[in-house]
C-alpha cells in the first residue's frame, strides 16, 4: 500500500498523459494475447476450469478488457457547466488514488482485468489480492505489466489469506476504493472494515441465485435446453451469473427436463487440460463437500435428483462432480434460496407469467436472469419486472464489455465492465472560476 501510494503521489502514472497510458495498456493486451495458452494453463492448474472455456474466458477476456479501457481512457472529457457569463464552472474527473482489489478463484484473470484495467486507465495505483487458491495467472500478469512499461509501484499483487491480506486492505487508512468480487459474508466484513477505518468506497459484486425462465412459446426448446445447460454447468457451475434456478412453464416441464437431462449427461467431465472434456473440476475438496451437502438437504426437503448428485472420478485424485438436476424444488427449499456455486440446477414449474415473475424475484439475490419466449411484449415485461442487473432474452451469457455487470439486493452494488465501471475509480472535482 505504501508502494502504491508513493507511485500515485509522485505522478509516475497518475500524471502521465492519457495517450501514454493508452499505449501501455495496449501493450499489456498484446502480451496477454501472445501468452494466452500459458496464462490459461496457469489458471486451469489453480481452479480446474475446462481448457476450452479457460482460453476464452481468462486471457481472451482479459486482453479484450485491457484493450477496451485503453481505447476509452482518452475519449472521456470533463464538463463545462451552464453558468452565468462571468463564471466558468468545470467538472474534472480525478483518479481516486490507491485502489484495493480482491478477486475470487473462479475466473481470476478475467475478473482481475475487470478491476485493474479501468482503475489503471483512470491513473490510479492498485493493490490486488488474488484468492488463496488461484494466484498464478495474476502473479504472471504483474510481471507482464512491468515488462510492458507500467511503472514500478503502480500495480502490486499480494497473496495471502483473506483474514490477513484482505483484512489489511479493508482496514487500511491508505486505500481509497475497495473493489471486491466474492461472497456476501465477506462483503459485509469489508463494509464493516470501511466504517472502522477511512470510510473508503466499497464496490461489491456478490453472489447470485439467478432464475432462467422458460415459457412454452420459447422459439426452440432444444436450443434453449442446450444453452441453459451451459449456463449452469460450464466451469462446474462456478460462475457468479450461473442460471442455477430453472423456472419452466408447467405444460412443457417434463419435455424440457428430459432435454436438459440429455444435455447434462452428454457432457464429458474430467481432466480440464484434456481438450476432449467439456467440464472440468470443482475448485477444492471444501467446495465439493459443500456441493454434496446440498444434495442431502435437497432430498430431505422433497426434491428429486433426476441426474447427477454425486462425486465422480474420485480415483483420479481430482474433485469432480456430475452435472446435477433436481426437480420438485419449491420456493422455500434451500436449493431455491441459497447459492451452491457448483454444477447443480434446481427446477421449479410455474403456470402463469405472473407466477414466473413472482418466483424469479423470490430470493434475496438479483445478479442475473434469463427469459425464453417468442412473445416480444412478454420479453419486455419480464425485462422490466425482474429485479436483476442482467436479463438475458433467448440466450444465457455472452455479454461483452460494452454493457455493465452488476447486481441489486444481496448481489451487491457497483458495476464491472462498460464505461460505467470507470465511475468507480474517479472522484468528481468542481472548479468554480469567477472571470
Task: Describe the structure in brief.
It is built from 14 helices and 17 strands. It has 435 residues and is α/β, with parallel strands linked by helices.
Notes on the structure:
- This protein has 435 residues and is an alpha/beta fold.
- The protein folds into two domains: 2-206 and 412-434, Aldehyde Dehydrogenase, Chain A, domain 1; 211-393, Aldehyde Dehydrogenase, Chain A, domain 2 (3-Layer(aba) Sandwich), CATH 3.40.309.
- The chain contains 14 helices and 17 strands.
- The protein has helices spanning 2-9, 18-34, 36-47, 51-72, 108-121, 136-147, 162-171, 184-196, 221-233, 253-266, 285-300, 334-337, 353-360, 376-385, and strands at 79-80, 87-95, 98-102, 125-129, 155-157, 177-181, 201-205, 211-214, 245-249, 304-307, 311-312, 320-321, 324-327, 344-350, 370-372, 392-393, 426-434.
- The strands form four sheets. It has a seven-stranded mixed beta sheet, with helices on both faces. The protein has a five-stranded parallel beta sheet with strand order 5-4-3-6-7, sandwiched between helices. Strands 1-2-17 form a three-stranded antiparallel beta sheet, with no helix packed on it.
- A hairpin with a 7-residue loop joins strand 11 and strand 12.
- Helix 3 (36-47) crosses helix 4 (51-72) and helix 4 (51-72) runs parallel beside helix 5.
- The model has no long low-confidence stretch (mean pLDDT 97).
- Strand proportion, as a percent range, falls in 15-25%
The secondary structure category is alpha/beta
Gap between N and C termini: 41 Å
Q: How would the global form be characterised? A: globular
Could you name the CATH homologous superfamily of the largest domain? Aldehyde Dehydrogenase, Chain A, domain 1
- The CATH architecture category of the largest domain equals 3-Layer(aba) Sandwich
**Fraction of helical residues:** 25-40%
Amino acid at each position: 500500500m505504501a508502494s502504491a501510494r508513493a507511485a500515485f503521489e509522485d505522478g509516475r502514472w497518475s500524471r502521465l498523459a492519457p495517450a501514454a497510458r493508452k499505449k501501455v495498456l495496449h501493450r499489456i493486451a498484446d502480451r496477454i494475447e501472445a501468452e494466452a495458452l500459458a496464462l490459461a494453463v496457469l489458471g486451469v492448474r489453480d481452479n480446474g476450469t475446462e481448457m476450452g472455456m479457460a482460453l476464452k474466458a481468462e486471457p481472451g477476456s482479459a486482453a479484450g478488457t485491457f484493450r477496451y479501457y485503453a481505447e476509452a481512457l482518452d475519449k472521456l472529457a470533463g464538463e463545462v457547466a451552464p453558468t452565468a457569463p462571468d463564471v466558468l464552472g468545470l467538472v474534472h474527473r480525478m483518479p481516486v488514488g490507491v485502489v484495493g482489489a480482491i478477486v475470487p478463484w473462479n475466473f481470476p484473470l478475467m475478473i482481475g482485468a475487470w478491476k485493474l484495467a479501468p482503475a489503471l486507465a483512470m491513473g490510479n495505483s492498485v493493490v490486488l489480492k488474488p484468492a488463496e487458491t488461484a494466484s498464478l495467472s495474476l502473479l504472471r500478469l504483474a510481471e507482464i505489466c512491468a515488462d510492458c512499461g507500467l511503472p514500478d509501484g503502480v500495480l502490486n499483487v499480494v497473496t495471502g489469506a483473506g483474514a490477513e491480506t484482505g483484512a489489511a486492505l479493508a482496514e487500511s487508512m491508505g486505500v481509497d476504493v475497495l473493489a471486491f468480487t466474492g461472497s456476501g459474508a465477506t462483503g459485509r466484513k469489508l463494509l464493516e472494515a470501511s466504517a472502522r477505518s477511512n470510510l473508503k468506497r466499497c464496490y461489491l459484486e456478490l453472489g447470485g441465485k439467478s432464475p432462467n425462465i422458460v415459457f412454452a412459446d420459447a422459439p426452440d426448446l432444444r436450443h434453449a435446453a442446450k444453452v441453459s445447460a451451459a449456463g449452469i454447468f460450464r466451469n462446474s457451475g462456478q460462475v457468479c451469473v450461473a442460471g442455477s434456478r430453472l423456472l419452466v412453464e408447467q405444460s412443457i416441464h417434463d419435455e424440457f427436463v428430459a432435454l436438459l437431462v440429455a444435455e447434462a449427461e452428454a457432457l464429458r467431465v474430467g481432466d480440464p487440460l484434456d481438450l476432449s472434456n467439456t467440464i472440468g473440476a470443482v475448485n477444492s475438496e471444501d467446495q465439493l463437500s459443500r456441493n454434496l451437502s446440498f444434495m442431502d438437504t435437497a432430498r430431505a426437503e422433497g426434491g428429486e435428483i433426476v441426474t447427477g448428485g454425486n462425486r465422480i472420478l474420485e480415483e483420479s485424485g481430482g474433485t469432480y462432480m456430475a452435472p446435477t438436476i433436481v426437480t420438485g424444488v419449491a420456493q422455500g427449499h434451500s436449493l431455491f434460496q441459497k447459492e451452491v456455486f457448483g454444477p447443480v440446477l434446481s427446477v421449479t414449474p410455474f403456470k402463469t407469467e405472473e407466477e414466473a415473475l413472482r418466483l424469479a424475484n423470490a430470493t434475496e439475490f438479483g445478479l442475473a436472469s434469463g427469459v425464453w419466449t417468442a412473445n416480444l411484449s412478454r420479453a419486455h415485461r419480464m425485462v422490466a419486472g425482474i429485479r436483476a442487473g442482467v436479463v438475458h432474452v433467448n440466450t444465457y451469457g455472452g455479454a461483452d464489455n460494452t454493457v455493465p455487470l452488476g447486481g441489486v439486493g444481496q448481489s451487491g452494488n457497483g458495476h464491472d465492465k462498460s464505461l460505467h465501471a470507470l465511475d468507480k475509480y474517479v472522484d468528481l472535482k468542481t472548479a468554480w472560476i469567477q472571470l
